[in-house]
Amino acid sequence: MVVGEPGYAYANKTFEKLGAVLNRVAVDEQGIDVTAVERLCKKKKISLVYVMPHHHSPTTVRLSPQRRIRLLELARQHRMAIIEDDYDYDFHYDSNPVLPMASLDHYGNVIYVGTLSKTLVPAVRLGFMTGPEDFIQLGGEKTIDHRFSGGCIYGACNGGVIPKRYGQQAYTQIR
Fold this sequence. Notes:
This protein is an alpha/beta fold. Helices cover 35% and strands 18% of the residues. It has six helices and seven strands, in the order E-H-E-E-H-E-H-E-E-E-H-H-H. The strands form two sheets. The chain has a four-stranded mixed β-sheet with strand order 4-5-6-7, with helices on both faces. The chain has a three-stranded mixed β-sheet with strand order 1-2-3. Helix 2 (34-43) packs parallel to helix 3. The longest helix has 14 residues, at 65-78. The chain is globular and about 45 Å long. The chain starts with a strand and ends with a helix. 26% of the residues are buried.
């Protein structure tokens, strides 16, 4: 899988715990270097790219529109998934919001991940993920840190406590 360098250490450690081999790609003033991602795709099978296009951590840069579109094209061409971590979409300090990459994804390659912790209650670690159903199923099965209640929330959604249509409505709104 591909991650930005510098990148979000906690996410990288999580991916490694799940068995991922990280290919680190430079992040510059326009975000992750999509040309370097393309070069990697030509050398080896890349199945996943992790990006924070709205506000990359720790650099705070935003992925340029051209790179967003090119990364979506690469995902389609190489049949790879993109995890779009949009942890602070609700916060805009000196600019207008940019729609998530998931809203431009017409092929089901983007898994959109967000959090409610920053806007609701920071002490309650509550996140969400939308995307293709098969990936969401796998994500629920691979919960590795139960301290943050991810497995419980997945179980509530999957078990019908929270009706499935709410998850579908959220996904539809993002797209």
